[in-house]
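Course assignment 3, question 2. Fill in each field.
Student: A.L.
Task: Predict the tertiary structure for the chain below.
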Amino acid sequence: MVPALPRLGRRSLMAALAAPVALGLLLWWLLSMGSSPSPGGRVTMATGVPTGVYARYGELLKQDLAHDLPEVDLRLTRSEGSIDNLRQLVAGRAGFTIATADAVAAYQVRGERGADRLRACARLYDDYMQLVVPEKSSVRSTKDLRRLRVGVGADSSGVQLITRRLLEAAGLDFDTDIVPVRVGIDRMPKLLEEGKLDAFFWSGGLPTTAVQHLAQRFPVRLVQLGDLSEALHRQGERTRYYRAAVMPADAYPMAQSGEAVKTIAVANLLVTTDREDAALTEGITRTVIDSRDWIGRQVHAAQNVDLRTAVFTDPLELHEGARRYYVSQKP
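Answer field:
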């Protein structure tokens, strides 16, 4: 005969049911105490001129962040380039931006406002210096630009910073040996096409849409800059961020006659300040690395973003949030 089970009274039954519920609530509370809230709120990123690679990269990154960090409202603002971006950043008008390593170093050396607060999230892709002339131009090297009208980039751009140094390496004075036209990539192609410029310099990822479109409608040619590499590095510490590079023959097929072009390259950094939230910075850094393949299909330069090289952000130290992300990726 099976013994009868004891009958639970109402109070005993309620107590029996309440115990696992209480235990579950306790576990939820303990877990929530150890987790960080998901980043949220409005964040501004300074990019560049609408036809440049910075702007396109920012647009695509915004799309990925909408998926990865849905509570973050990323706003993009235009700028004149790297130096302008850094000024927007330290003034609090942007939380993140992109700038070339040489521009960051120059900003630090000049002791500009907030230079000590700059931090990096990642090394992104390299900018390639491009000297564009009409196809029938007699210009074969930077030295041939003497007395010509040359687009040199806006005054707050990284393009003009490198242009000045390249001209110096070629033995030309920026202010007296050429006619400098201080405009950006949003205006230089049209001016060249209209005959109002004889040449222009541009520093950007490959390919830059504005140069690509110009080559499709107007015959242009890229001038090699490889002969300036040694003279450029003789300028000392300020030029250590440049490396000799080669633009592949298919970068601008209609402007290179099937030939690779020797030039100078410099790394781009994703930059923020030490006041930015660590959880937000960690999340944005993760998206930058994870989105490489998707963004790279539309901005070819982004294919060079790599976890192994992203931590090399000289002259800036990593933001704590970015450091946290890279540590989490170690095997």
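Instructor remarks: The longest strand covers residues 118-134. Confidence is low (pLDDT under 50) at residues 21-35.
Grade: pending
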